[in-house]
Amino acid sequence: MTDFQNLAAAVLAGNPAASDDALAVLRADDAELMDVVAAVGRLRRRYFRNTVKVNYLVNLKSGMCQENCNYCSQALGSEAPILKYSWLSPEETLEQAGAGIRAGASRVCLVASGRGPSRRDVDRVAETVGELRRNHPDVEVCACLGLLQDGQAQRLADAGVDAYNHNINTAESHHDAIVQTHTYADRVDTVRKAAGAGMSPCSGLIAGLGETDEQLVEALFALKELGSDSIPVNFLMPFEGTPMAGTWELTPARCLKILATARLVCPDREIRIAGGREMHLRSLQAAALHLANSIFLGDYLTSEGEQAQADLRMITDNGFVVQGSADELAQRAHVVETGPTIRQRGAGTGVLPNA
After folding, report:
1. I want to staple 146 with a disulfide (CB 3.0 to 4.6 A). Which of 92, 116, 175, 345 is the partner?
2. Burial of 303 from C-beta contacts in 10 A (0-12 / 13-18 / 19+)
3. 274 vs 145: CA distance, rounded Å
4. Does residue 333 form part of some domain?
5. What is the tens place of the pLDDT at every residue in 103-155?
């Protein structure tokens, strides 16, 4: 039986987890689930204290994608009854983003379906980012526009984009089973282009795509090696009208173990509970916050999420604070500004000891 506390202590001491360690967490018995959360949660607290980063998605262009990703409701051949529309105007984007920012989001993720942007598309997004920056100068901006061509990453970075999201989605050894219109190497190349332009690389995965335990661990170590600063962990939403409709491989306990494994492998990275959390984690969403330090607020690209106020209440009810909120800033100031209290009692004084 694995001693999860000792495993977490070893990682805290600077000894990176190995593949066998990750598999032990992923394959933990359900009876050990809370032991896993308690142990691996120590890593989350070490690097992120009790803060939760809140992110908000704006789908700039929905549907009509020419890629054939089997899991995606926007993909070529998908018959999922989703909203389909062309580019939002900068004004519409600002309105949508503003709602998330007012609800507490510190990062806005601007997403557009498609294989990748044209030069005109990049210029359009750059204009939108400029408007967003002028109205909300403190918000982080992440773009997710698909595969990038040479020069496009730098154009986005120069426009003020802080981070670029492009998920590897699954292990290299499983990639061709879920999409055939682009390669795993294409995805890795885009993440590297983003990082090379100075944007924070954001790349994650989708669990429940028919991958093995070994392939899930393979993907997590690949993300670590790729240097992904932010790792969204999505759980497959099996949309009707897609090739993966009716695929239900996940349980709430399994999802919790996946998040624990991600934290063990990448202890100091932002682990974000992303699409499918409401559907698959269900009543264990609060427990997941003890492993992940980031969530999406509100709706997703083509599906609805929980009410924002319910999510914010879940965060505070469980002893966490929203990153960038008044509560978190006050907490941070107290930690930074309050030094040790100099002893003025006990030995060496005429005052009774504190005993």
Report:
1. 116
2. middle
3. 17
4. no
5. 999 999 999 999 999 999 999 999 999 999 999 999 999 999 999 999 999 99
Q: At what angle do helices 213-226 and 252-265 cross, to 10 degrees?
A: 40
266 is in an annotated binding site: no
Other C-beta atoms lying within 10 Å of the C-beta of residue 13: 7
Which CATH number fits the domain that encloses residue 39? Answer: 3.20.20.70
Provide the residue range defining the domain that includes 256. Answer: 4-327
CA 137 to chain centre: 22
Does 255 show up as a binding residue in the annotation? no
Q: What is the pLDDT of residues 160-210, one digit of tens each?
A: 999 999 999 999 999 999 999 999 999 999 999 999 999 999 999 999 999
> Does the structure show a pLDDT above 60 at 335?
no
Q: Is 144 labelled a binding residue?
A: no
Establish whether 109 is an annotated binding residue: yes
Q: Are strands 205-207 and 270-273 parallel, antiparallel or unpaired?
A: unpaired
Burial class (CB in 10 A: 0-12, 13-18, 19+), 20: exposed
Domain assignment present for 347:
no
Q: Is residue 246 part of a domain?
A: yes
pLDDT recorded at residue 354: 62
CB crowding 186-211: b at 16 or more within 10 Å, else e: bbbebbbbbbebebbbbbbbbbbbeb
46 is in an annotated binding site: no
Is residue 72 marked as binding? yes
Q: What total number of domains does the chain contain?
A: 1
